[in-house]
Design brief:
Number of strands: 28
Helix content: 40-55%
Radius of gyration: 45 Å
Shape: flat
Largest sheet: 5 strands, antiparallel
Strand order of the largest sheet: 2-1-5-4-3
Structural class: alpha+beta
Length: 816
């Protein structure tokens, strides 16, 4: 039987057991809830760090990375120990100096200083752009980041949560945008035509300098924001209507500046001018006009030429009558026409009829071609069209002739009553008939090509030798340090330049000889003057290179006038002298002549090494060089032989090996011993210049006008003469005369072949203005054009290609 105490004890024990069990149960539930909450927080943390598009770094004040999503984002394993920020990102200083913080430059690291100072101040930062040099596997790359930082305190530790956003693409886009803006600005400011930009309402917002020049305005400040294109009284109302509709415009406008000065803006111009008026638009994404872009291209010269220059019309008439080239300029809406008789004749007519009826029917033109011509003109009446050019058949005197027909639409301005067409025609029947003959000539040319190929094979080595020296020593000159070494290279380059030039001249002469086109221009001249000139030039050449050689002359007659080829005689004697100088180190070289049979025997005698007896007969053969160590092509003496033979003479050499040689040639000539002839050449040849002294002796600061379509002449002269001359440059004859009138240069160097107005006409014009100004002609065919050059007013000429010495010597001779 249980007692009360036993029962109480049992009950108490039961309650205690139940209480302990409840406590344990609650504790277990709390632990489960705690771990579930912690797991949930961890999942949210992991999810946040994995989906963010930026790099996240939890850093302490020493820049150790305590946590980051970098490894997950880059898909690389995380290290067991925390890494420093620079080590993790492969900073170049870290890679090269054994770790982040170990380089002397780490103290200057903007990221390190930013993080440490922010933690110390317990502050945040944002939008900090930094550039880091990051080392990838094989190379060093600069990367741009935008950083933001949040100060936090965890477990009593001051930390910084850093967000890094890669902005490399943004920086690249920024640079590209800046480049495009700079490129547009450069093009806009340097356009050779007037350009202005207006807003959608027509208000002027920007313009270039060419626009100001065209409009005769000095300051853009009074125009920007005030000028409205729709108020311009010179722009046709129909154009303004198109502009308001955003439709492109391309036509001509007449600017009456007297009208503009009263109603639009103030300009320094008072006359009327013509411009090609071109309009286009800048639009937004929806196609709406944001800006109006207008270009002005000067057309005034065209109007002056076509409408007012009667002298031009006379010149065209005369040229057409002489050349049989027909010309016609006609306004289809007016009566301001120019027609030459040759034009009508080339269309099978005889004149006297209405030109407009002729051009609308083309009665003598073959039907197939007639329809094409009429169709082109009908189209030209309605809209701008490109030029028409074709060979057509025309019935002339009962036989079809081939006529080359060119038609160009000069001006399309129907609103102002002008549709201008220009016609040019020429009879090319003879050219067509010679096509069969050309086929025969083609076969001859193919045979000639084979000979040329063999010739080029022989010359390949000769051309490459000086060319290789020029190229090789030019490269060495660019890297040479020693002045003496540079001068040595310059001398080598100069010698090989001269050799290459002589080679080219020899090849050209040889080709003329083969084609039987070698030019000869006979005149009366004094042989004594020729010998004296050659002796003077040779003496000067020897002053520095061969001082131990005495240059002598042998002139037996006081006066010796002959009728012969001055240039070719000079060429032969100079070739003999050049060879003598190559093989003579001391003694003398004698140049002269003697009477022989019924003419003269010219000779060059030297005390050089002479020629071996078994080689004497070979000296005049092509490509023969008796000494392979000496520069040369082996063509010079062969060319001399051909020249002498064509002049009806003989050539030869007498030589003793080790003693010297005498090269001679004989020409049958009639000799006069009195100067009583009217056409004797001047004593000083145009090519003769005073002996050179030093380049810096070109006296004074002068203005030199260069007129040459080839800009390389200007660049060469500018490089050589910029310290002594102010250099002006003209690309054609008209510009040269205009510059001369404006700048009054002290000397002119002008190519005889120039566009618009050739060098001869331009020289004559300049000479009429300034009788005493020195004029120098540039030409590649001096011997052919010499008489015309001097007759046109030039003082002298320089033959292309020319050397620095020739240029300086010629300038000195004319500016003393």
């Amino acid at each position: 039987m249980l007692t009360i105490s036993t029962l109480f004890l049992a009950i108490s024990t039961s309650f205690i057991f139940i209480g302990v069990h409840l406590v344990l149960t609650l504790l277990l539930v709390w632990v489960i809830i705690y771990f579930m909450r912690k797991k949930a927080k961890t999942s949210v943390h992991d999810l946040t760090w994995s989906v963010t598009p930026n790099f996240l770094f939890l850093l302490d004040k020493d820049c150790y990375v305590l946590d980051t999503n970098y490894y997950d984002r880059m898909n690389v394993p995380a290290p067991k120990e925390p890494m420093m920020f620079g080590d993790l990102l492969n900073c170049s200083n870290s890679s090269l100096n054994g770790g982040c913080g170990k380089s002397k430059d780490c103290g200057k690291c903007s990221i390190r200083n930013l993080i440490s100072s922010s933690i110390e101040a317990k502050s945040n930062f944002k939008d900090i752009d930094v550039e880091m040099s990051l080392r990838s596997i094989n190379r060093l790359e600069k990367s741009n980041f935008r950083l933001g930082g949040k100060y936090i305190r965890v477990n009593n530790k001051d930390l910084m949560l850093v967000v890094a956003n890669d902005i490399n693409n943004e920086k690249s886009l920024e640079k590209k945008t800046l480049h495009e803006i700079q490129k547009f600005s450069f093009l806009f400011e340097n356009l050779p035509v007037g350009c202005a930009i207006f807003d959608a309402e027509g208000i002027l917002t920007e313009m270039n300098d060419s626009y100001l020049e065209y409009m005769g305005v000095d300051d853009k400040g009074g125009l920007v924001g005030k000028l409205n294109i729709f108020d311009n009284p010179c722009v046709n109302e129909s154009y303004k209507k198109l502009m308001r509709q955003g439709i492109p415009v391309s036509d001509e406008v007449k600017y009456e500046f007297s009208k503009l000065n009263k109603t639009y803006f103030t300009t320094r111009f008072r006359d009327d001018r013509y411009f090609r008026f071109i309009v286009n638009y800048l639009r937004d994404a929806d196609g709406a006009v944001k800006s109006i872009v207008v270009l002005w291209v000067s057309n005034t010269l065209v109007h002056i030429t076509l409408r007012k220059n009667k002298n031009f019309q006379k010149m065209v008439m005369y040229a057409s009558s002489v050349s049989n080239v027909g010309f016609c300029s006609i306004n289809l809406l007016g009566d301001d026409d120019i027609i030459t008789y040759a034009f009508i004749r080339n269309l099978g007519e005889h004149g006297g009829g209405d030109i407009r009826y002729l051009l609308s029917h083309y009665g003598q033109v073959h039907p197939e071609n007639r329809d094409e011509l009429i169709a082109y003109q009908e189209k030209a009446m309605k809209q701008p069209v490109p030029s028409f050019e074709k060979d057509i058949r025309v019935l002339i005197n009962g036989k079809y002739h081939w006529i080359k027909m060119h038609i160009g639409q000069q001006l399309f301005d129907p609103d102002n009553g002008t549709i201008q067409l220009s016609y040019v025609n020429i009879d090319i029947t003879s050219q067509k008939e010679t096509q069969n003959e050309l086929l025969i000539e083609k076969e001859k040319a193919e045979s000639s090509d084979k000979l040329k190929s063999a010739f080029l094979a022989n010359m390949s080595h000769e051309i490459r030798t000086p060319l290789n020296a020029i190229v090789g020593f030019s490269e060495l000159l660019a890297i040479a340090q020693d002045d003496a070494e540079k001068e040595s290279y310059k001398d080598i380059i100069k010698k090989n330049n001269n050799l290459l030039l002589q080679l080219i001249n020899d090849i050209l002469d040889l080709s003329k000889i083969e084609a039987n086109t070698l030019d000869f221009s006979y005149a009366d001249f004094d042989v004594n003057e020729l010998i004296r000139e050659i002796v003077m030039t040779t003496t000067f050449r020897c002053q520095e290179t061969k001082p131990n050689i005495e240059i002598q002359s042998a002139i037996p007659l006081d006066i010796c006038v002959i009728h012969s080829e001055w240039i070719r005689l000079s060429q032969i004697l100079n070739n003999f002298i050049t060879n003598a100088l190559k093989f003579t180190e001391q003694g003398h070289i004698k140049i002269g002549y003697e009477t022989f049979k019924e003419g003269l025997r010219f000779f060059v005698e030297d005390t050089g090494i002479g020629i071996k007896e078994d080689r004497v007969d070979q000296v005049f053969d092509r490509f023969v060089k008796l000494n392979s160590n000496q520069q040369g092509t082996g063509l010079g003496l062969s060319i001399c032989q051909s020249i002498v033979e064509k002049m009806g003479g003989e050539i030869g050499v007498n030589s003793t090996f080790g003693v010297g040689s005498t090269f001679w040639f004989y020409l049958p000539l009639s000799i006069a011993t009195e100067l009583n002839m009217a056409n004797i050449l001047p004593k000083e040849s145009p090519k003769t210049a005073a002996p050179a002294t030093k380049e810096n002796e070109v006296a004074g600061e002068k203005i030199l006008l260069i007129a040459d379509e080839d800009a390389s002449t200007f660049k060469i002269c500018q490089a050589l003469l910029k310290d002594e001359y102010k250099i002006l440059y003209a690309r054609d004859g008209e510009e040269a005369v205009s510059l001369f009138l404006k700048e009054q240069p002290s000397i002119v160097l002008m190519n005889v072949l120039l566009p618009k107005s050739d060098g001869y006409d331009s020289a004559t014009a300049i000479r009429s203005i300034a009788p005493d100004v020195p004029l120098i002609a540039l030409t590649v065919h001096a011997q052919l054009a010499e008489k015309r050059i001097l007759k046109s007013g030039f003082n002298t000429y320089i033959e292309k290609p020319f050397t620095k010495e020739i240029l300086f010597d010629t300038l000195r001779a004319l500016t003393r």
